[in-house]
Amino acid sequence: MTPEDDAMLRALGGATFRGNVTLPSGQIIGPDEVTALSSVYADERRHDPDDFRRQRFLDNCRPATAADYQAWLDGYRARGGATTHDYDYPFPSGWFVLERSDVTMPPLCGSRAVHVIVPEGMRLVVQGDLYARPGHNSAYLMDGFRTVYGGFPWVPTYRDVL
Fold this sequence. Notes:
This protein is elongated. It has two domains: 3-47, no CATH class; 61-157, no CATH class. The strands form four sheets. It has a five-stranded mixed beta sheet, with helices on one face. Strands 1-2 form a two-stranded antiparallel ribbon. Strands 4-11 form a two-stranded parallel sheet. Strand 9 (138-141) and strand 10 form a beta hairpin. With 162 residues, it is an alpha/beta fold. It has helices at 3-12, 31-47, 49-58, 66-78; strands at residues 21-22, 28-29, 61-63, 85-86, 96-99, 103-105, 115-118, 124-126, 138-141, 146-149, 156-157. The protein starts with a helix and ends in a 5-residue tail after the last strand. Helix 1 packs across helix 2 and helix 2 (31-47) crosses helix 3. The protein has four helices and eleven strands.
């Protein structure tokens, strides 16, 4: 399912359908599946919209490893980038994720913020303006070894990622 498909189902929010629905990707889904998916979105959205958006994003990611981050950091440094923080503990894989498919990153803040490594060739869509409104999220792009962040630049090193 593409980010556009996801956005369409989210917008339907609990609607009931009698016929098939063609999603923006061209995928056709039946009325029962559309009703079930849009109901899940509507129900979860009622509880906490930020947690819902964060979880939908994380469903398209996996925990990043120290090797994933080291590969990005090596490329970043090779193009002249500098680190901003040095930590005396191992790489915290629970704080970083690796995107597995094109996905939309919601503008999350505080403890909900996400630090995502975007593999080469993947597309990261940011709700809002990529450079001005990504929330407190950080994106580490393998294409060009760039970083995009909300708030302040954060390019850390760890005991096992130097």
